[in-house]
Request: fold
Amino acid sequence: MIVVTTGVNNHSPKDQGWPDTIRGYIGNNTNVFNCPANPPGLTLNIGINLNLAHSISLFPTSQGGYTNLLKSGSIARPSATTYYADSGDATLATATSTNAEAWVQDTASGQKSWLDWRTPFTAPDGNADPNWLSLPTRAIDRHLGKCNMGFVDYHAERSLASTIGFYQTMGGAGDQWSGQ
Reply:
């Protein structure tokens, strides 16, 4: 993720993210990030969000102080590595489920969409994400029961969130999140 000032999130001077990197290409029209399938009243209505496995940088050099990110050219399976996906906060009742299709987007408060989605582990080391349960941003099946996804090779698919393979071994056939 790249951090720039005066971005679409704009809650504090340094609280920006990936959408800001493409604002110049869309005429600064931040409405393109709004997702009509999100519940009304969100503080930040961004539906497609970044994989927060701390694993991949699409930029040739590390940005925003992130120094341990994989470069997109080093991803072993770019067509099978999810970089963006529909996301939102999962309800506390569903966030602990290991079944991604059981995750339900929390619509009880105004801030239930964010700039990223989490995985239970972080790459490249495979350590547990300490915020997996406390900040339950998840890939959510909210478009006709499926999740829109963008991959490192820039193609897009609509599939079940579980195809990301959240609990699969990094680098294994079912892993579409780590870049390994």
